[in-house]
């Protein structure tokens, strides 16, 4: 496994790896868990070399968010990746990704970035799309793999690739969950024992709404009410939003259909958690 920390080292590593086949890229912010590692498994299916980026991107954090305390463990991440098939890891400092400081030209998410999580994190998805566009430019991958837990992010990246003709195949891998159903997330490390026990309420609320859908309920308002009522059974959770949206446009729907996505966010103490399910 090659470790590159600079643009020059990355370019040399990519020159060495490209003859082996189409490159698959897994962008991450590190502090890896099984959800991240499952993305490497998906990337290996391309048959070519697998590259991983680890970069905590300051552009996607608001001034009151957790950039400084976001969990980091470089040695642990590197130890986890090599056995799962990573051929190249790009682990740059901020000044290597943004050598001139904050970029003057950025990617704007537009209206799709102002709903769901974007309604509560202004500019977040502009930062996400800008850094992903830079990574696509640095790596020139054939494919990039993202997790379904960050549903809105994956939709916006796919839209960016289509609208800007970036020529990258964007693939999403299923959510990986703990045994009790909690979606794996680096931020789960913030949770106290009591908060961790209550955090399962997110997946429980999704399960309740999904059961209602499978039972014949199609009203978005009714399905949302089912999810909210289930969330209220977990007093340590403070819901931020519960929405049913179109899986490609992120527009709210009045009537749920197969493929409609139920997405939600809630706070457990100071920790913001997200989850979603595609109704089927």
What's the structural blueprint in terms of helices and strands?
Elements: E1 2-4, H1 7-17, E2 24-28, H2 34-44, E3 50-54, H3 74-81, E4 88-90, H4 94-97, H5 124-139, E5 143-147, H6 151-163, E6 169-173, H7 193-199, H8 201-214, H9 220-231, E7 237-245, E8 261-268, E9 271-278
Helix pairs in contact: 5-6, 8-9
Structure description:
This protein has two domains: 2-173, HUPs (Rossmann fold), CATH 3.40.50.620; 186-275, Pantoate--beta-alanine Ligase, Chain: A,domain 2 (2-Layer Sandwich). Helices cover 34% and strands 18% of the residues. It has helices spanning 7-17, 34-44, 74-81, 94-97, 124-139, 151-163, 193-199, 201-214, 220-231; strands at residues 2-4, 24-28, 50-54, 88-90, 143-147, 169-173, 237-245, 261-268, 271-278. Strand 5, helix 6 and strand 6 form a beta-alpha-beta unit. The N and C termini lie far apart (40 Å).
Q: Architecture of the largest domain, CATH level 2?
A: 3-Layer(aba) Sandwich
The total domain count is 2
Query: How big is the Rg?
Result: 19 Å
Count, helices: 9
Short description:
The chain is α/β, with parallel strands linked by helices. Helices cover 34% and strands 18% of the residues. The strands form two sheets. Strands 1-4-3-2-5-6 form a six-stranded parallel β-sheet, with helices on both faces. Strands 7-8-9 form a three-stranded antiparallel β-sheet, covered by helices on one side.
Task: Write a concise keyword list for the protein shown above.
single chain; 280 residues; alpha/beta; Rossmann fold; Pantoate--beta-alanine Ligase, Chain: A,domain 2; 2 domains; 6-stranded parallel sheet; 3-stranded antiparallel sheet; 9 helices; globular
